[in-house]
Specification:
17% of the residues lie in helices and 55% in strands. By secondary structure, it is of the alpha+beta class. The longest helix is centred in the middle third of the chain and has 12 residues, at 19-30.
């Protein structure tokens, strides 16, 4: 197995649909400019309430990506 070096960044995604979709949105946006994304870890989940219901979700994640050799 080759040894690699990884970097982590923190992202916050949002979605009116679900917390899972907020994660997907954050990863999809990051993948437009960052190569070699490998894993994520949920750090925080929160939401915005409007008129007695959940208006949208915000999920903060740590994302790890491999630094190219």
């Amino acid at each position: 197995m080759t040894e690699h070096t990884y970097k982590t960044i923190e992202l916050t995604g949002s979605s009116a649909e679900s917390s899972d979709q907020a994660i997907q949105n954050a990863i999809a946006k990051a993948s437009e400019t960052i190569k070699n994304l490998h894993w994520f870890e949920v750090v925080e989940t929160r939401g915005y309430i409007e008129q007695g219901g959940v208006k949208y979700w915000q999920v903060t994640i740590k994302v790890g990506f491999r630094i190219e050799d």
